[in-house]
Amino acid sequence: MMEQKPISQAIIKRLPRYYRYLGELIAQGVERISSNEFSKLMGVTASQIRQDLNNFGGFGQQGYGYNVKNLYMEIGKILGIDRVHNIVVIGAGNFGRALAGYSDFERRGFRIKALFDRDPKKVGTDINGIEVYPIDQVQDYIRKNNIEIVALTVPKDAAIALAQTLVGTGIKGIWNFAHTDLRVPKDIIVENVHLSESLMRLSYNIVHRDKVLK
Amino acid sequence: MMEQKPISQAIIKRLPRYYRYLGELIAQGVERISSNEFSKLMGVTASQIRQDLNNFGGFGQQGYGYNVKNLYMEIGKILGIDRVHNIVVIGAGNFGRALAGYSDFERRGFRIKALFDRDPKKVGTDINGIEVYPIDQVQDYIRKNNIEIVALTVPKDAAIALAQTLVGTGIKGIWNFAHTDLRVPKDIIVENVHLSESLMRLSYNIVHRDKVLK
DNA sequence: TAGATTGTTAATCGATTAACAATC
DNA sequence: TAGATTGTTAATCGATTAACAATC
Fold it and tell me: Do B202 and A179 make contact, defined as CB atoms within 8 angstroms?
């Protein structure tokens, strides 16, 4: 079987944005779009769009452009959101509950199946119909319920310890909201959401905005 | 006054991570560190660390390395977190409340002063001592309370409309949690936190992880 | 001083943009 | 067919890494 050359993370970062714009175009009833029109809409170069897409296949047609619905579907497949991903959230604090209460993920096939917390007062409650279980049941739950992704919304020390206990349960990815880097075997993918770093970048760009502006 | 050459966003993205590691080194009582030791700790090249830092000044000393406390302070200054940034959050839903309840930001000088919501039932309540006001008071509040940053945790259509009304109030940045791109004048900096895009990248890297692994 | 390590220049690598032949 | 627009190669640009002279 042909080995595909690895796609750079720079490209992967752009795919969800293409996907979002294509979804909006579908909602507007647009059937086809050229790389040139698309580039104007998104504020990127047409060249980049064509290059990016051609890493995955020839989705366009000369003289016509791209079929919006088809391209949307293809990028969805590439992103792996044509299938269901089962998730559990560890940490039923404000962020954990916010994730559980956010229905947008469900639409894209990300199903939050359960929450876990060490606080007995939270155990047994539910958020948006998603139940909170005691933390010591998490490994067992993952194994029995085909859980692929664990979202960690706990303090950093707890996150580091938990990441260790999750190795070997069969999970494929960690969605890490703790402000630390997790060291796990490389077959477990870690995606970080570091809100304080995001805020610091905003701060930098505000403070230096005369320099940043082009 | 000498014009500084603009710093690339690639570098700016790395600064908060340096800052975090330096904070941890301070907590561990480490006084000095060479770019080589630091590079091993962080998993980047020593060359990159030296190049990055030298964009802002010569913080090190030949034959010695970098003074941890000093470098931490300098990067803090560069990031603009040596000062207070007043924030309001629009949208007192799960995410807005999670932000208001998260005390880590406060420590770095990011002060969440108020929440705003259009739901009268939420108005008058408070989260972590931060009060919820009616949405139509937000412009007035921003002007009177020296607000620099607005966090938007509302649905995308509301976010687009609100971004427009915020232009001209004097805010310097928008921390955008809505799943859309905001079009505002370029003197207002937008920092996006697009959780569904983060989740899609995780999905991609999970599904293609045999290709992604090096 | 000798050793260590920075600051900085030069070389390499990768990502973006431009250009255009292929083709619908 | 003629016009439009892709797919793809080549050129450019920018970011990363390597190397080493300067210097503490």
Answer: no
* Residue B201, token pair as written in the block: 């990248």
3-state SS class at B190: strand
Residue A172 DSSP SS3: coil
Q: What is the per-residue pLDDT across B50-94, written as a single tens digit (0 to 9) for each?
A: 999 999 989 999 999 999 999 999 999 999 999 999 999 999 999
Instruction: Provide, in whole angstroms, the distance separating residue B54's CA from nucleotide C8's C1'.
Output: 9
Q: Which of B85, B94, B128 is the best mutation test for A, with the most CBs of A within 10 A? A: B94
Statement: B85-197 belongs to CATH 3.40.50.1220: no
At residue A176, the 3 state secondary structure works out as strand
Judging contacts by C-beta atoms under 8 Å, the chain A residues touching residue B175 are 198-199, 202
| Domain parsing of chain A, residue ranges | 9-79, 85-197
Please give the structure tokens belonging to residue A186: 């490389």
Q: Which amino acid is at B207?
A: V
Asked whether the beta carbons of B100 and B131 are under 8 A apart, the reply is: no
B4 touches strand C (CB under 7 A): no
Q: Taking the C1' atom of C18, which residue's CA lies nearest?
A: A47
CA distance B11 to A208: 14
The SS3 call for residue B65 is strand
- Integer CA distances (angstroms), A11 to A17, A49, A79, A194, B153, in order: 11, 10, 12, 21, 27
Question: Are the CB atoms for B187 and B169 separated by under 8 Å?
Answer: no
Residues of chain A with pLDDT under 50: 1-3, 213-214
- Strand pairing class (B110-117; B126-127): unpaired
Number of other CB atoms surrounding residue A148 within 10 Å: 21
Considering CB atoms only, which of B16, B196, B201 is closest to A197? B16
Q: Model confidence over A30-85: pLDDT tens digits?
A: 999 999 999 999 999 999 999 999 999 899 999 999 999 999 999 999 999 999 99
Q: Which token pair is A15?
A: 């795919």
Count the Cβ atoms, other than its own, within 10 Å of residue A24: 15
Domain spanning A9-79 has what CATH number? 1.10.10.10
User: Are the C-beta atoms of A74 and A60 separated by less than 8 Å?
Assistant: no
Task: Supply the pTM of this predicted model.
Answer: 0.96
